[in-house]
């Protein structure tokens, strides 16, 4: 029996579950250039090339473990000198009370390897010819460009449709309401006592007309932001945030806005729009703080790789994005109504002002091909998450004019 | 002949409008009680509260449309999910001129009254609403 | 065109608990690799198994080479499964490259996960400068070449025919199953995405606590890799196993289960 094992014209070897070789036959030893003594006690993987070791660890060993056998597995053994020996293996694993062991039987397949090599060479040549087809390559590039253009078009269309809905809402309700009130109060004054036009009613009139002015001003702002700006320069969010805080401290004297900022990576953006964005977000932190004179927000950011295509399915190109999170500890809101906060003039709290701030932020982020979302818990604060592309498509930077007055006028909105 | 005083629930986030309509009800029918809710959520809270069951559910719900949290449509839909509240008559009272709103509520058999720009009409409107009271 | 994610990724859900444990296989085979480990957690947890697109019994037709050329594409699979099943506070168990896939998913949506268990993970497989990944670039290129050459050999994994193997009665009902089914072209691309990946810069973005199970004598994730990970991953615990090789959940399931249970008993 021993003779049969050793003289068999094939490779036979066996090992324990931890990989220690138990038996190896003569043909194997001769082919690989080891003596039996040298191999006994060694690990199975000594016989394998590196790729086969990886294959064994990831596929071959688990398969044997689960199935108990594996047939016609093509691996490569390694001679002492480092030459590859392509073999075809059948293996079977036996479990017993004390231990388990696996038996491998194989034949060398140089000829088959030659056929396979020819097949693969032919396949590669065909693929290469196809790949080198210049017309095809050009078409592929054009397709890629069109896919990008289409993706940004779709984003634009979606945004415009949403804008239209917003405008419609504003015109059919938000403006109707104060207009009607103007009429109601004016008529009340006319029908009242002549000599003493009721002061209270006149004050109401003024209040209503001021409200309308704010709505129209907000609408102007919204429309202004609908024209996508092509200005893209390096912007440091940290300095924008500090500028915004200075302005807000003037607008809300006595309120201390505490900002805890992690190091924030630079972005490529329109600086004027970024100033509005961060001004609005910090303004919300102050407005929606818990009772008292201290507002707190933690700002963190990091870079990540995401799919550049946000609107088309099945197209993938991974580029750099920056994720910025602003987490406050204010009164929050019920997350159930969260989707509404980005609508124009939607208010979830009396402190919301006229409810335009977040709608503007959303427009600004969309102008930068990014995304904005907000999550909150009632009574426990809100977290605004901004996703901005790290490097923006579009024109190269024009040095942006920092007209301070311009900024103040634009950003001092009743939010 | 009903001896129990009528109760109307009026849901509107605008303080002026709340004042106008409740004043109108007070003028034409002082024994009618008007409960005011600032928004849909507060309205639902009231309808589901024990106070409502003690005093009795309203005989009419007057609903504004554009309110924070839950708008008029949503509030109405939520009321409809409660079998105890389903049959309370509802009138929508809004300044919206949006034809879709009118069509939506008419298709459900609900009247939509546009808020007037002259409070002289309020009494007439309040009177009309009272008649809808069950 | 829109297949449900649960169907696309061959998702299996079982277990009596309510807390979710999501198992992700790595490069090599499919969700069947977890079969010796999941029984220990079935009573306490809701277990979710899946195959990445291209592996096991997933819908191969959904494979998109652009998407899956990066580990981000695989992280998407994980996030899409969590979204469709509306999972929360997930305990994520990832083998091999799924350690990093889980990391990328957790960086994008940290709120989804409670903690991560990584078995044999590695942030980068190629030696560079002072960093020991375990392989030279040429080694990986050799692997990919072998996988190409082995195309026909690997086709045997596609659908092993069990017919005619009546001499294996111990398999019983499981005759109908096929293990480790892999499309060889997709397997090669998965290997390329895995072994050329470098996630060392991403480690500092991780905000979820993790357990690193480092095997002894693992050529694919050697000891230096485990130490590097532990040194750069905040909130990580490193346990070195007695198990050797790259698949302790197959070769030493009891030790794996014991270390997992010990970690899970600690508060998050």
List the defining traits of the structure above.
heterotrimer, A: 415 residues, alpha+beta, Beta-Lactamase, Heat Shock Protein 90, 2 domains, five-stranded antiparallel beta sheet, five-stranded mixed beta sheet, 46% helix, 23% strand, elongated, B: 134 residues, alpha/beta, Rossmann fold, five-stranded parallel beta sheet, 43% helix, globular
Report the CATH topology name of chain C: Rossmann fold
| CATH homologous group name of chain B | Response regulator
Taken together, the total number of domains of chain B comes to 1
Shape of chain C: globular
Beta-strand percent range of chain C: 15-25%
Q: What is the ordering of alpha helices and beta strands of chain B?
A: EHEHHEHEHEH
Greatest interface and its participating residue counts:
A-C, 44 and 54 residues
Mean pLDDT of chain B: 87
H and E order of chain C: HEEEHEHEHHHEHEHH
What is the CA–CA distance across the termini of chain C? 40 Å
Poorly predicted regions of chain B:
none
Shape of chain B, please? globular
Fraction of residues in helix of chain C: 25-40%
| Percent of residues in β-strands of chain B | 15-25%
CATH architecture of chain B: 3-Layer(aba) Sandwich
Question: What's the level 1 CATH class of chain C?
Answer: Alpha Beta
Q: Provide the helix percentage of chain B.
A: 40-55%
CATH architecture of chain C: 3-Layer(aba) Sandwich
What kind of assembly state do the chains in view correspond to?
heterotrimer
Radius of gyration of chain B over all CA atoms, rounded: 14 Å
Number of helices of chain C: 9
Describe this structure in words.
The complex is a heterotrimer of chains A (415), B (134) and C (268). Chain A has 415 residues and is of the alpha+beta class. Chain A has a five-stranded antiparallel β-sheet with strand order 2-1-5-4-3. A five-stranded mixed β-sheet of chain A has the order 7-9-10-12-11, covered by helices on one side. Chain A is 46% helix and 23% strand. In chain B, strand 1, helix 1 (15-28) and strand 2 form a beta-alpha-beta unit. Helices cover 43% and strands 17% of the residues of chain B. Chain B has one domain (7-132): 3-Layer(aba) Sandwich (Rossmann fold). In chain B, helix 1 packs across helix 6 and helix 2 (40-47) packs parallel to helix 4. With 268 residues, chain C is of the alpha/beta class. Chain C has a single domain (5-265), classed as Alpha/Beta hydrolase fold, catalytic domain (Rossmann fold), CATH 3.40.50. Chain C is built from nine helices and seven strands; from the N terminus they run αβββαβαβαααβαβαα. A seven-stranded mixed β-sheet of chain C has the order 1-3-2-4-5-6-7, with helices on both faces. In chain C, helix 3 (98-108) links the parallel strand 4 (90-95) and strand 5. In chain C, 48% of the residues are buried. At the A-C interface, helix 4, strand 3, helix 5 and strand 9 of A face helix 2, helix 3, helix 4 and helix 5 of C.
